[in-house]
Amino acid sequence: MRSPLGVIIFVSICLLMDWYLFQSVRLVMRNSGSTTKTVVTCVFWGISIFSALFFLTLPFLHQQLLNKLARNYLFAILIGLFIAKLVAILFFVLDDVRRALQWIITVLFTSKANAGISANTGDTAVISRSVFMSWLGITVGGSLFGTLFYGFSNKYNYKVISKKLKFEHLPPAFKGLKVVHISDIHSGSFTDKHAVGKGIEMILQQQPDLILFTGDLVNNMAVEMDEYKDVFSRLKAPMGVYSVLGNHDYGDYVQWPVDGLSKAQNLENLKKVHADMGWRLLMNEHVVFEKEGQRIVLLGIENWGAKARFPKYGRMDLAYEGAAHHPFKILMSHDPSHWDAEVLTKYPDIDLTLSGHTHGMQFGVEIPGLKWSPVQYMYKKWAGHYQEGRQHLYVNRGYGFIGYPGRVGVMPEITVLELSC
Fold it and tell me: How many alpha carbons lie under 13 Å from residue 149 in its C-beta half-sphere?
């Protein structure tokens, strides 16, 4: 939505939506005083016009100003309003469909004589909009916006999710191996260093044998980690800290150069950030762990997404070369769509794949008996544990956030996996 034409189309749609929504607002205010009507009208259209002007100027804002606005949550609030209005309008559309059907039935099945009587008494065939449906739509849309607003307070509300996984091919020497899995840090979105550090303390309290990070360290640029390298460099484990790249780490969503920095140099700088923190970045390669003469393999590939808009930098053939004879294999691959598209079909001896990427859309419902998020319509595997035969996949819900600076129902996650045989 960064192109001027795309923004103009989006703003035009928003204004049409506002006009349509305002018809219901007027209806529920029909018995209100003139002062109330005036205030509500001014506030409604004031927000509408402000939103339109913001999005129209968005493509021309300097990147630093845009980031500042994002930190102030303005972008998220306006998008949240748009979504809330869209949901409310669904109720109004249903009511208008009802009105249209009722009008057609009235016209087709009312006799001319009755129609004449109706005309003489001033009763036309026009069907009025339902006040109930108008109130219902406004209430549901308003509640959704309130929920999104409340979600701002959850963005650092880290949850530790522990799970025991049993594997037939895990060497006995590695029984009880404790792995902490985190993903999608997105340091460029952080505004509270202390809160981020509390999450790091929670990780260290788990006393993991191995810490694995599955990509998206930054939103776009390596400099986003400058303020947080000291925080994440505190992560230590006896078997080490290993990482891979995610789709955001390559800088594909920025027009380069930026302040004289090229895209290629930015990527090199980001690799150095991993090294400076003591993390071993795996670039289409693998490492072998040995204990009591028994071995397991950790493979890490660059980003590989089955969706067309995401890059396929990952090379499983390179990472897998020389690993086939080891009995147990863990794969770090940022995008969970890779599991269905390539891992299950071509590498049936990959025992455990760890991914992230989806964030659970940072919005959903996860309660006993119900697990739902809009992201499931884009990704079949979007959060938690999945299994097919001997192969397991775990999708981390993300440590950080991007776009919407909050979480509703899907909290930021620290995964603790205990492996057994």
Answer: 12
Cβ distance 264 to 321 under 8 Å?
no
CATH number, domain 156-420: 3.60.21.10
Evaluate if residue 275 carries a pLDDT over 50. Answer: yes
User: What are 177-214's pLDDT values in tens digits?
Assistant: 999 999 999 999 999 999 999 999 999 999 999 999 99
Domain ranges of the chain: 4-152, 156-420
Size of the chain in residues = 421
The DSSP call for residue 400 is S
- The number of beta carbons lying within 10 Å of the beta carbon of residue 121 is 8
CA 81, chain centre distance (Å): 18
Q: How far apart are CA 270 and CA 386, in angstroms?
A: 31
Q: Which of 420, 383, 421 is nearest to 164 (CA)?
A: 420
Please tell me whether residue 117 adopts helix, strand or coil conformation. helix
Q: CA dihedral in degrees (377, 363, 181, 274; nearest 10)?
A: 100
CA 347 to chain centre: 28
131-147: per-residue pLDDT in tens?
888 888 888 888 888 88
> φ and ψ at 245, to 5 degrees?
-95, 150
CA-wise closest residue to 375 among 364, 361, 356, 388: 361
Whole-model pTM: value is: 0.83
* Sign for the pseudo-dihedral over CA of 308, 310, 316, 318: positive
Find out whether 362 and 408 touch, Cβ atoms under 8 Å: yes
